[in-house]
Amino acid sequence: MTESRRAIALALLLGGSGVLHFAVPKPYDRLIPRELPGKARTWTYVSGVTEVGVALLLTVPRTRRFGALLAALLFVAVFPGNVKMAIDHRHKPLPQKLIAYGRLPLQWPLVAWALRVRDRA
Questions:
Q1: pLDDT digits (tens, 9 = 90+) for 23-44
Q2: Which sign, positive or negative, has the C-alpha torsion 68, 31, 106, 4?
Q3: What is the DSSP secondary structure assignment for residue 121, as one 8-state letter?
Q4: 41 in Cβ contact with 29 (< 8 Å)
Q5: pTM for the full predicted model
Q6: In angstroms, rounded to a whole number, what is the distance separating the alpha carbons of residues 20 and 67?
Q7: How far, CA to CA in Å, does 63 sit from each of 5, 32, 42, 58, 68?
Q8: Domain-by-domain residue ranges, the chain?
Q9: Which long-range contacts (CB under 8 A, 24 or more apart) does 48-53 make?
Q10: Cβ proximity of 107 and 76 under 8 Å
Q11: Of 102, 95, 100, whose CA–CA distance to 84 is shortest?
């Protein structure tokens, strides 16, 4: 896959996820740690806007390097929400538990993907 396609694929992933924060926000609300101030829905919308914004930066060659760095930082920033999901799902049925636990190691390849796009932009 060419570097441009890699960047566009990452943009599609982030953009699609960002849109889902608005289309079906409830599952995202549950990922918001209670320790954050304000309402979970506000954080859901802020993260959705952030994901769409980063996706747009990734699509433009001139802003791709910065967008990829922001994508890597975003993947690190949402990791506590994935930890919360894993903790909240520890007593759920196995399929739900596997999804929650599977998200944890998935963050690191996403960070590496974003950094690769940054380095080759």
A1: 999 999 988 988 889 999 999 9
A2: negative
A3: -
A4: yes
A5: 0.90
A6: 20
A7: 15, 29, 27, 7, 9
A8: 3-120
A9: 48/17, 48/18, 48/19, 48/20, 48/21, 48/22, 49/18, 50/18, 50/74, 51/14, 51/15, 51/17, 51/18, 51/21, 52/14, 52/15, 52/18, 52/19, 53/18
A10: yes
A11: 100
By the 8 A CB rule, do 106 and 100 touch? no
Structure tokens at 9: 């694929």
Q: Quickly tell me which residue has 């998935």 as its tokens.
A: 106
The span from the CA of 68 to the CA of 113, in Å, is 9
Query: What token pair was written down for 32?
Result: 């918001």
- Residue owning tokens 């608005």: 22
CB neighbour burial string for 63-87, b if at least 16 within 10 angstroms, e if fewer: ebbebbbbbbebbeebbebbbbbbe
For the chain, residues with pLDDT lower than 50 are: none
Note the pLDDT of residue 55: 98
What letter would DSSP give residue 38?
S
Q: So what's the pLDDT on residue 103?
A: 86
